[in-house]
Specification:
With 139 residues, the chain is an all-alpha fold. 76% of the residues lie in helices and 0% in strands. α2 (20-34) crosses α5, α4 (68-83) packs across α6 (112-138) and α5 runs antiparallel to α6 (112-138).
C-alpha cells in the first residue's frame, strides 16, 4: 500500500467510527442478503459480532504502518475462520459487502481512490488470513 492509500483509509475510517454500529449492521445485512449461504457461519449475537468486526478493522487500520506486527494475528484469524467453515471464496463476498457498506456510509467521500485503497487493504488482509488457513490445512 502506498502512503497516500493509507492516509485515505485512515481519513475515511475516521468518518465511519461515529456510525460504526450502524455500519456493522449494514455490512451484515448486505452480506446475508446477497450471500445467504454465509449466514450459518454466524451463530452468536450479531451486535457483538458487529463490535468484533469494527474492533478488528480498527486494529488493522491503526496497524497499517507496522503491518508486519499484524501478520501472525491475521494468520491465526484465518485459521480460526477455517474452523468455522469459511472458504477462500467467502473472502470476496466479505469484500463486496464491506465496499458496499463504505460506499453507503461515506457517500461522495467514497471516491474511486478511496475505493481502490480499501480494495488493496482488504486484499492484503484477506491474503494473509488465507495463508493462515492454508498453513492450518497442511498441518
Amino acid at each position: 500500500m502506498t502512503p497516500k492509500q493509507k492516509q485515505l483509509i485512515r481519513e475515511s475510517w475516521a468518518k465511519v467510527l461515529p456510525i460504526q454500529e450502524t455500519a456493522a449492521a449494514m455490512f451484515y445485512g448486505r452480506l446475508f442478503e446477497v450471500y445467504p449461504e454465509v449466514k450459518p457461519y454466524f451463530k452468536g449475537d450479531m451486535q457483538e459480532q458487529g463490535r468484533k468486526l469494527m474492533a478488528m478493522l480498527n486494529v488493522a487500520i491503526n496497524g497499517l504502518d507496522n503491518f508486519d506486527a499484524l501478520i501472525e494475528p491475521l494468520k491465526r484469524s484465518g485459521s480460526a475462520h477455517l474452523a468455522y467453515g469459511v472458504q477462500a471464496a467467502d473472502y470476496a463476498k466479505v469484500a463486496d459487502a464491506l465496499l458496499w457498506t463504505l460506499e453507503q456510509g461515506l457517500g461522495d467521500a467514497f471516491s474511486p481512490d478511496v475505493r481502490e485503497a480499501w480494495t488493496v487493504a482488504y486484499g492484503t488482509i484477506a491474503n494473509v488470513m488465507l495463508e493462515g488457513a492454508a498453513e492450518t490445512e497442511t498441518v
